[in-house]
Amino acid sequence: MAVENIVEEYIRTHPGSQKLHGRAEKVFAADGATHVARLLSPFRPYITHAKGSRKWDVDGNEYIDYVMGHGALILGHGHPDVVRAVQEQMAKGVHYGDNHELEIEWAELIKSMMPSVERVEFFSCGQEANMMAIRLARIFTGKRKILKFDENFHGWADEVVAPALGVVADEVKVIPGHDLNLVEEELAAKEYAILLIEGGGAHMGGQIPWDADFVRALPGLTQRYGTIFLIDEVVTGFRDSLGGWQATVGVTPDLTTLGKTIGGGLGVGALGGRADIMDILKPKAPPQRFIIHTGTWNANPLTAAAGIAACKLYIGGEVQKKANQLGAYLRERGNQALKERGINGRLYGSSIVHLYLGPIDYEPSDDTLPPTRDVRKLMAGVPTKVRLCLHLLHRGVSTVGARFFILSVAHTEKDIDQTVKAFADSLDAMIAEGTLNQASPG
Ligand SMILES: Cc1ncc(COP(=O)(O)O)c(C=O)c1O
Description:
Helices cover 39% and strands 16% of the residues. It is α/β, with parallel strands linked by helices. The strands form four sheets. The chain has a seven-stranded mixed sheet with strand order 4-12-11-10-7-5-6, sandwiched between helices. Helix 3 runs antiparallel to helix 10, helix 4 (101-113) packs parallel to helix 10 and helix 11 packs parallel to helix 14 (413-433). It is globular, with a radius of gyration of 22 Å. The structure holds pyridoxal-5'-phosphate. Pyridoxal-5'-phosphate is lined by residues 70, 125-127, 153-155, 198, 232, 234-235, 259, 269.
C-alpha cells in the first residue's frame, strides 16, 4: 500500500534521529551533515551500530546498507579478520611515530596486486594521494597545468575541482570525456603536468562509464606530449577486479591513486606508480627536484593492520567475484521491477550498481552499461532519486540519494531480494503519489 505522506511517516518513525539532527544543525554548518552525501531532507538516520550488510539507527530501525562506508567496505561491516587485526594491533600500539614491518607488508600486498605500482606512498585519504600525484607530476615534468574530465571526481581540493566552483583552481582545465581530438589539442600545447581520470568512469566507479577504447588511447597521447597519466582508483582499486580497473581495460598508467578498500575500513590513501617519478621523494634527489612528504597518520600501524587483513582477502580475487555476482543479481532483479512497472530506467554497473532514470536511447550489449551515452541524461533525475532514497530508507534500505547501491561480500541474495521488494514498493508508492512517471504505453 502506498504511503500517504512519506516525509511525515519518516519523521514519525525516526524521532531519535530528528532530535540528533536538531543538535547537529547547531554544530555543523552544512545543514548538520559532515559530508555532502549525508545530507537529506528532512534528515538521514543517525546510526548506532553496523554488522555485515546491515546497520541500525537510534530508533531501532534496521537497514540493508548500500552506502558501505562510501565504498570502503567491500568486506562489509566488521569483517572478523579486520576486527581481529585491529583489536590485536590496538593493544600493541596505534602509532609508533616510527617505521614498522606492517607498512612494508601492506605496500608489498598492493604492489603484488597492481603491476603498474613500482613504489607506494601512504596518506590519510584518497584526495591527499591525488595532491601528491599532482605535485610529483609538476616537478617531474616542469609543467604546471592539470587536465581532467567533466564530472570526474578526485576530492574537493582546489587542484582537482572545476574552476567554476569559485575556488582558486585556475590551473585546472576540465574538458568533456570521449573526445580524443580535444584531448590531443590540449596536450599538444605541452603545458600539462598531469591528466587525471576516474577509474571506471565519473562518480563511484562509473555512473558515466568510460569507453575502454578511449581510455586505451590516452597513455599514447600523454607520452607523446610529456604529460603524466594518472588513473584515480580510489573507488575501483581492488573492487571490481584484482588488478583494479586498469587491469580490466588493459591500460598501464604512470601513477595510480588508491584509498577506500585498501584500508579495510580505516581512513587511507595511497599513491603508486613509476619508480622514476616517485623517486622525487628520495632525499638524495637534486634539491630542485626533491619534495618532502609528512603526515601524522601516514601508514600508521592500526590502519596498516586493517589494510593488510583486508588486502590479503582481495588477493585471491574471490571477494571481487562475489561482489560482482551480487551486483549482477541486483541489476537483473531490479531491472525486472522497473520493466514490470513500465518505468524508463535501468540499473547498471558492477559491484557498484548505478540507477539511471530516463529514456532508453539504445540497448547496450552489456548490462553493466547504461542505455544512454548522454552525460546530461545520466546525471539528471536527482530530485526523483532523492525522493526514492527516502522511500527506500523508510523500507529499510540505505543508499546515497538512490544514485548507487554499493555491494560487499557481506550482502546475500536474500538481502537483495528484500532490497528489490523495497525498491518495487517504493516505485509503486511514488507512482501513486505522482512523483514518478511511467512510460507512455508503446
Ligand atoms: C574517485 C575518487 N577519488 C578520490 C576520492 C577522495 O577520497 P577521500 O574521500 O578518501 O579523500 C574519492 C572519494 O569518494 C573518489 O571517489
